[in-house]
Amino acid sequence: MRFSSPTKDVKFCGQTVKINKLSGASVFNIQDMTENLRKSSNPEDPKANMEIMYATVRAGCVEFKDISTEDMDTLPTSEISELCNEILSFSGMGVGK
């Protein structure tokens, strides 16, 4: 039997995109990236923080699975942040969880 992750439609830059609940492997990867950044010499590094958001969006949004970092860099940061928060919230993580 093959299970599939629950999905939800959300808005991103005026378009509807499909997000899914993060897999256990994705959660552990994001947690490792966050912990490594926290232990680094520059835990406020904006580029490293963006990479964590990008990894979250790639793992949790079908339309962004194969998008390059260069293409992600062209998108509005506030929209990426909101999408990341939607994915984390839908997966039972994030602020207030």
Quick take:
The protein has 97 residues and is α+β, with helices and mostly antiparallel strands. The protein has one domain (7-90). 51% of the residues lie in helices and 12% in strands.
Task: Characterize the structure shown.
It is a single chain. The protein has helices at residues 24-39, 46-60, 69-72, 77-90, and strands at residues 7-12, 15-20. It is an alpha+beta fold and 97 residues long. It has one domain (7-90). A two-stranded antiparallel ribbon has the order 1-2. β1 (7-12) and β2 (15-20) form a beta hairpin. α1 runs antiparallel to α2.
List keywords for this structure.
alpha+beta, 12% strand, 4 helices
Counting H and I runs of at least 4 residues, what is the number of helices?
Answer: 4
Q: How can the largest sheet be summarized?
A: 2 strands, antiparallel
Arithmetic mean of pLDDT:
92
- Distance between the amino and carboxyl termini: 30 Å
Helix content: 40-55%
Shape: globular
Order of helices and strands: EEHHHH
**Rg:** 13 Å
Q: What structural class do you assign from the helix and strand content?
A: alpha+beta
Which stretches of 5+ consecutive residues score pLDDT under 50? none
Strand order of the largest sheet: 1-2
